[in-house]
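wait is this the right file?? whatever heres the structure
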């Protein structure tokens, strides 16, 4: 997954950045951040476990951390009551230390204030804590995230809710019920091009385009071509069936796997937003393929929270959808799709 190169000067500034990395403001959570060469690497979040369930939570976090082999780890405990995160922070610290991983710092966040568990200097880490800076006061947030049209959701539930079917779904469902087969590839490519529009002020996705694009995903070759176009190198073009290769090339948005300039990130953010809108237009019966395409794209981008949300609805709608099950395994194992090319 991509790393972030940020100029952060304090734990408070790091905490200001974390919601942008997660996609939402964490509540009652443990967040683990891997550090290597002063880069933020793998970031994992889990709900705070119930008392006595710390071992189960660690089993969910440790394998990916051990595979990542970071130089150090920062542990964040987001809590709503005093000492609520202490058991899992202590358990994680012990487990990481036993596996040879250095814990750089442990921060507790409550009521918009933070303090370090490993600093006993009252001049910088008072028991009352220090206010988490606002995004406007952290230049790294403005430069790295706001300037790329990124904004975190208020809570995780808001991130999940945006993927649920909305009042446009019945109209799209009616169109899909009368669409026996995908249309010609030129028409399908044009519909997909309108959906993954990256320009300023794109028009709303029409129900007809949503139905055409969703029907095209019944063809697994075309579905994989959409994934390949949005996630260069994953899967390789040569693995696509011949009829899907031209479709992929017509749809390719113009970035490479290693592009991370501001213009590219903005374009990817816009495509992601459009795919989210597409998924919200689909009734459950037809939603799993599009949700999985979105999940492939967000996992390729390193957004585990949105990927899990997309997979949760996809597998609720179609529990045996093979690509969703495969992607779920990749997410559970924290397999980096870019490194696996």
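ok assuming it is, sequence goes like this
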């Amino acid at each position: 997954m991509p790393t972030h190169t940020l100029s952060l000067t304090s734990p408070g500034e790091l905490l200001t950045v974390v919601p942008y990395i997660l996609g939402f403001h964490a509540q009652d959570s443990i967040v683990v951040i891997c550090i290597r060469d002063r880069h933020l690497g793998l970031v994992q979040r889990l709900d705070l476990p119930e008392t006595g369930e710390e071992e189960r939570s660690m089993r969910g976090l440790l394998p990916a951390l051990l595979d990542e082999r970071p130089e150090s780890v920062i542990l964040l405990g987001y809590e709503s009551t005093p000492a609520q995160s202490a058991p899992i922070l202590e358990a994680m610290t012990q487990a990481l230390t036993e596996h040879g991983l250095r814990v750089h710092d442990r921060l507790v966040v409550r009521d918009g204030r933070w303090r370090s568990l490993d600093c006993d200097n009252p001049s910088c880490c008072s028991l009352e804590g220090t206010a988490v800076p606002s995004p406007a006061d952290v230049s790294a947030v403005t430069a790295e995230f706001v300037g790329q049209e990124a904004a975190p959701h208020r809570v995780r539930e808001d991130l999940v809710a945006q993927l649920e079917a909305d009042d446009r779904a019945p109209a799209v469902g009616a169109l899909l019920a009368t669409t026996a087969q995908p249309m010609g590839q030129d028409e399908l490519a044009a519909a997909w091009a309108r959906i993954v529009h990256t320009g300023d002020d794109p028009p709303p996705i029409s129900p007809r385009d949503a139905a055409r694009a969703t029907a095209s995903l019944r063809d697994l070759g075309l579905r994989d071509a959409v994934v390949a176009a949005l996630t260069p190198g994953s899967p390789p073009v040569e693995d696509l069936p011949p009829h899907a290769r031209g479709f992929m090339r017509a749809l390719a948005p113009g970035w490479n796997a290693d592009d991370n300039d501001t213009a590219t990130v903005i374009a990817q953010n816009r495509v992601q937003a459009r795919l989210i809108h597409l998924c919200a237009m689909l009734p459950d019966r037809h939603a799993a393929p599009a949700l999985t395409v979105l999940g492939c794209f967000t996992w390729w981008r390193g957004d585990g929270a949105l990927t899990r949300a997309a997979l949760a609805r996809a597998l609720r709608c179609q529990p045996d959808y093979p690509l969703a099950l495969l992607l779920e395994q990749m997410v559970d194992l924290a397999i980096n799709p870019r490194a696996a090319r």
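The two ends are 12 Å apart (CA to CA). so i think its the right one actually
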